[in-house]
Amino acid sequence: MTSEDLERALEADPNMPLSRGKLAIPFVGKDVPSPTNEFAHPDIVIGLTILGYRYEFLRLTDIDEVIVRLLNDVRKEPGRQQDRPSAVLYRGWVTESGGHICAGHNLSIPQRKKTHMDPSVPNAEKVESGKGVPPLALLQRSNDTQMKDIFKLLRSSTSVIQWYLEQLVFPKYMRFQSKKLSASGQELGAEMLFARRVGFSGTPTELLPKGLGRCHFAPGDDAAMFTTLTDPAVMSLKQIDGQWTVDALLEHVVAEET
């Protein structure tokens, strides 16, 4: 969902699950999200979510979540500010997106500008390159100018999107059970549900639920079956040419009189 879509959805349903704002839920029709695919098919949700963020890019709120995590992590990490893993990760994203870290006071002064587009994403926005952004240690979330500059620079970055999904979205909103209960029809025909049973629907074989025991056929059933199958009035035997084909055999069967 875009920010506007999310706002409208919350107005229509204030109790909407939080996962709807982060994951791409399959829809069965206009304004009708699938009630089961969200939980029964997590692989589909993951695939659609990745495509959704690659095509629509990150929202400002998403970038804010990324910055919050990086700021929290960098405070806990040892070493010099610029050498800490979170600072290195942030600096790599900025460089990869065509920007650079500017530690001076003139952070809002635009640098040499050029634009590039990601050909792998339809309708990719032009990204201003050469934009100076503050280092992670000096970044202030309350500074709208800084946050907007970072948002424009990083919102379409494949690396940032991947990190955001793997570190923030999927671990929190894809908490599925590691094990799934399942049962076949044969298991349901055992004593698990019904203490007393008189039969089991299906082909009569020894593969019936163990609780039913062996098959008990009425006397003469097997003989009656073989008698019917070998009765000339029901079945007939005819030798066919050794060079037969499937089409010729089917045409021959259709042409036979009943």
TrEMBL record:
Pfam families: DUF3645 (PF12359). Residues 18-49 form the DUF3645 domain. One of its GO terms (molecular function) is cysteine-type deubiquitinase activity. It comes from Symbiodinium natans. Keywords: Hydrolase, Protease, Thiol protease, Ubl conjugation pathway. It is an enzyme of class 3 (hydrolase). This is ubiquitinyl hydrolase 1. PANTHER family: UBIQUITIN THIOESTERASE, UBIQUITIN THIOESTERASE ZRANB1. Coiled coil: none annotated. One of its GO terms (cellular component) is nucleus. It catalyses: Thiol-dependent hydrolysis of ester, thioester, amide, peptide and isopeptide bonds formed by the C-terminal Gly of ubiquitin (a 76-residue protein attached to proteins as an intracellular targeting signal). One of its GO terms (biological process) is protein deubiquitination involved in ubiquitin-dependent protein catabolic process. Its EC number is 3.4.19.12.
